[in-house]
Amino acid sequence: MTENTNDNIQNSDQARKGKMASSKKLDEQLKQNMSKIKHKILVLSNKGGVGKSSVAVNLACSLSEKGFKVGILDADLHGPSVATMLGFEGKKLQGSSEGIIPMSVSSDLVAVSMASLIETSDAPLIWRGPLKMMALKQFLGEVEWGNLNYLIIDSPPGTGDEPLSICQLIPELEGGIIVTTPQGVALLDSRKCINFLKNLNIPILGIIENMSGLKCPHCGKNIDLFKSGGGEKVAEEFKIPFLGKIPIDTDMVNSTDEGKPYISQYKKSETAQVFNKVVELILAKIK
């Protein structure tokens, strides 16, 4: 072999060793980070448009208002919405000598979202699986989460790369919460989520039926826009906890668009009371 060939082989070997060392360091950081967080909860659905992110955000806010230290990771890399819902859209993540500094939403709530890394809100993320896996690994390992009681992970719809990566990277997950709407198509997808978690031996904390009825603002009558009770039937079918029905509330739509979590703005509302009961059931399940 020529001298140039030997140099190329040596450089390639050094680069490979450097990547291995870097990967090992990140693995250690991730393990150390996760050891400081008591409970890690994955919020997922197999279908988009069921309000999964709004449930995850309000769950995180409710826990923080109960005095818990909480973090929320927006694992929906292609369609991040947590930044908008928590009011830090357009703000960029900063770094320190220790790692990435999460966004401080309140004294007890921090958050991280891909929306704080991309150039503009209109810029698409055109990544394959390995890049997404590395991004999630960095979010878990390089972010300065600190000592938390809860880390809520808002997973993108489906049972693909992102939720699978999270389950593999955090084997000590407390469990998954499945969000569905009452209609048949959404329930069919919910069954896939249940089987996804079971196949990976991830505990199922329960299922939430979101958008379950609308109270008419004029006559007060309840209208089942997307039917009702489907989530409860699926829970019975699979013998998993049913956490409750969260109704459609126009104030929730407005609050998420304004970056003001519903649970914080409308504490005395009927929907907020229902949501708080859901949170209490989750806490009881974890205890």
Name its key features.
Rossmann fold, nine-stranded mixed beta sheet, 10 helices, 45% helix
Structure description:
The protein has about 290 residues and is α/β, with parallel strands linked by helices. It has one domain: Rossmann fold. The protein is about 45% helix and about 20% strand. Strands 1, 2, 5, 6, 7, 8, 9, 10 and 11 form a nine-stranded mixed β-sheet that branches. It has a two-stranded antiparallel ribbon with strand order 3-4. Helix 1 packs across helix 4, helix 4 crosses helix 5 and helix 6 packs parallel to helix 7. The protein is globular. It starts with a helix and ends with a helix.
Short description:
The protein is an alpha/beta fold.
